[in-house]
């Protein structure tokens, strides 16, 4: 277990995440929602227990945006109300104790220490993007 530090763009919000060895890499998501929410071509994520994330500064600065996924269940996105950086998402379909952490905002995500571990929703990958890790068409079989 290693502790990683993250902060939003404006610095109002800071957090630490404790990641197991198998969580110390990015899951790239190519789905259209990730493209639109990030304004980019994929997002960098890891699924972690909710208890592994500690908001150390500015918890009250976080806003919540909810959309409904293909399952019909809510996906709650927590973001800095000032600069709009997305810190983490909670998908109801995963239960109460799991969250999706945006690993690209961790210091080790920004400096390249964390590497791609897998890619999901590869079917929505843009044609000019190279594959960088094991890719699943949608989600890995559970
Ligand atoms: Zn911010
Ligand atoms: Zn996605």
TrEMBL record:
CENP-V/GFA domain segment(s): 4-129
Q: Which domain of life is it from?
A: Eukaryota
Which GO molecular function annotations are given, in alphabetical order?
carbon-sulfur lyase activity; metal ion binding
Q: Which UniProt keywords apply?
A: Lyase, Metal-binding, Zinc
The family line of this record is: Belongs to the Gfa family.
Q: What is this protein called?
A: CENP-V/GFA domain-containing protein
Q: Which organism is it from?
A: Massarina eburnea CBS 473.64
């Amino acid at each position: 277990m290693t502790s990683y530090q993250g902060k939003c763009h404006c610095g109002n919000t800071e957090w630490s995440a404790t990641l197991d060895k198998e969580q110390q890499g990015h899951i790239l998501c190519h789905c259209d929602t990730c493209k639109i929410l990030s304004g980019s071509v994929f997002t960098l994520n890891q699924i972690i227990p909710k208890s592994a994330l500690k908001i150390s500064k500015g918890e009250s600065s976080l806003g919540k945006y909810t959309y409904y996924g293909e399952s019909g269940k809510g996906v709650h996105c927590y973001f800095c109300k000032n600069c709009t950086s997305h810190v983490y998402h909670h998908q109801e379909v995963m239960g109460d104790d799991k969250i999706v952490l945006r690993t690209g905002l961790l210091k080790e995500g920004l400096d390249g220490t964390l590497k791609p571990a897998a890619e999901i929703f590869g079917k929505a990958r843009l044609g000019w993007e190279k594959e960088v890790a094991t890719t699943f068409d949608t989600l890995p079989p559970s």
